[in-house]
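## retry 2 of 3
previous attempt timed out at serialization; input unchanged, resubmitting
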Amino acid sequence: MNLVDKQWEQVGFSLIVLAIAFLVSRLLRFLIGRFIRGAAKKLKVDPTRYNFFKNAVDFIIYLIAAIVIFRSIPSFRAVGTTLLTGAGVLAAIVGFASQSAFSNIISGFFLVIFKPFSVGDRVKIGQLYTGDVEDITLRHTIIKDFENRRIVIPNSVISNETIINSTLTDEKICVFIEVPVAFQTQVDRAMEIIQQEGLNHPYCIDNRSPEELTKGEAPVMVRIMTFGDFGVQLRGYVWAANPTLAFELKCDVLKSIHLRFQQENIEFGYPGRVLINR
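## retry succeeded, writing output
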């Protein structure tokens, strides 16, 4: 057998090994996927750990395939022998090049073990990413944001950020309605309008504690927060059932407050300019 035939034989062997690895991977993913769906539906278990295991199985299968190819082809073994001669340099290069990948993998294991969030949870990661967790893999986590985009975040990035999980406990959320009004305006009337518009919104809920009910506090509170350079800063506290409804509530209430202020000639606090005619 000549050299060209041997090379083609090695290529064919490598393709066969990769094809077998692909088929085994697809089969195991299918079986694990069925198990996950069945367990989540019947036993009400968290699918996060099993989804992560499904991705880990892929990694292990392809790693085994690479090792088989490497050890079965003589030319690859010769390359391996040469590389082992400079093992110190190789270790340094591989360590530097793969530290990010290993960091993501280790962070992924920590995410599954300590479970700051699970698949299906609504989370905010740092100041940039907010959405529903769709999948957790060895290297990254996929989040679907409110614009229906999929955001792929490396697990090492998530481990270094503050995580707000809206699904971990109670989904109810307090919306801050921030409204600046001018110093010369009727502040009491402005506070009444903010309170009324918050209460009138269909997504507003009564989240008062027994102590607050005893004190006779209103479901929507409005307070003066500070005196700014251009007016009085008011803040309304309105509760909604979940973050999605809270976002809609805030947008609607701000619009209705603006219309009411126009109708009753209440001025917003904003920077102005004084023009001097010479």
